[in-house]
Amino acid sequence: MGKVYLVGAGPGDPGLLTVSGMDILKRADAVVYDRLVSDSLLSYCHENCEKIFVGKESGYHPIEQEEITKILIDKATRLPVVVRLKGGNPFVFGRGAEEAMALKEAGIEFEIIPGITSGLSAPIYSGIPITHRGLITQCVLVTAHESPEKSGAQVEWDKLAKLRNTTLLIYMGASRIGRICSELIKYGMDPSTPAAVIENGTLPEQRTITARLDGLTREFKSHAFHAPAIIMISPTVALRDRIIQHEVESWTLAGGLL
């Protein structure tokens, strides 16, 4: 019986994979990997490693979660080291907990190796602080893509709108950005609150737009932004112009230009 490693691949930049994650990849006999995982990470695998793509995107799930779990269990019964390589951090909106519980139930030994989550890295690559002394006292991670199996929505936009001195980092919200902004404003958030969208965070093609909350959707559409993207709503967005070191167009900044 083998062992499964649930490894966070980070947000996209292959340089953000942890040392522990790289060491396990080098030993892997099989790697089950997601769509947003950098292909260059697979170069760490030895030549006989089996690579299994199980990528999903919004509205298109060629391999459902239950089948992915079956693949992990099957490979672990026949191979010593199986890696489940997941974008970001497996336990931050990554369904890693579901896989871990299924492996435990099946009697499969596993280990979790965390990764850097996109919400806490994409803004930094764009020159936007997550927190700032005297300005932000809390940070909230939110998913805008809730499970259809839930009896109702669990994101309480009315309560989030009333938070002060807070950074909101919203995952999987590109297709719902208009509703997100309008809900927050409807429930009392100041329309002039600084906001940003970071597309393809930490990758060479990363782009960033900043705007007031009430103008963010318009900017998003006018620059044809799309998923994957992190929506950030925070007073710290206004600090970006004081941090970036290179003259770039206001809506784009690739990692490494800071």
Measured distance between first and last alpha carbons = 47 Å
Q: Which architecture name of the largest domain does CATH use? A: 2-Layer Sandwich
Top CATH class of the largest domain = Alpha Beta
Task: Give start-end ranges of low-pLDDT stretches.
Answer: 247-258
Could you please say which CATH topology of the largest domain applies here?
Methyltransferase, Cobalt-precorrin-4 Transmethylase, Domain 2
Q: Please count the helical segments.
A: 7
Please supply descriptive tags for the structure shown above.
258 residues, alpha/beta, Cobalt-precorrin-4 Transmethylase, domain 1, Methyltransferase, Cobalt-precorrin-4 Transmethylase, Domain 2, five-stranded parallel β-sheet, five-stranded mixed β-sheet
Give the SSE map.
Elements: E1 3-8, H1 19-27, E2 30-33, E3 50-53, H2 65-76, E4 81-86, H3 96-105, E5 109-113, H4 122-125, E6 138-143, H5 157-160, E7 166-171, H6 177-186, E8 194-199, E9 207-212, H7 216-222, E10 229-233
Parallel strand pairs: 1-4, 1-5, 2-3, 2-4, 6-7
Antiparallel strand pairs: 7-10, 8-9, 8-10
Characterization of the model:
The chain has 258 residues and is an alpha/beta fold. The chain folds into two domains: 114 residues, Tetrapyrrole methylase, N-terminal domain (Cobalt-precorrin-4 Transmethylase, domain 1, 3-Layer(aba) Sandwich), CATH 3.40.1010; 124 residues, Tetrapyrrole methylase, C-terminal domain (Methyltransferase, Cobalt-precorrin-4 Transmethylase, Domain 2), CATH 3.30.950. 22% of the residues lie in helices and 21% in strands. The chain has seven helices and ten strands. Strands 3-2-4-1-5 form a five-stranded parallel beta sheet, with helices on both faces. The chain has a five-stranded mixed beta sheet with strand order 6-7-10-8-9, covered by helices on one side. The longest helix is centred in the N-terminal third of the chain and has 12 residues. The N and C termini lie far apart (47 Å).
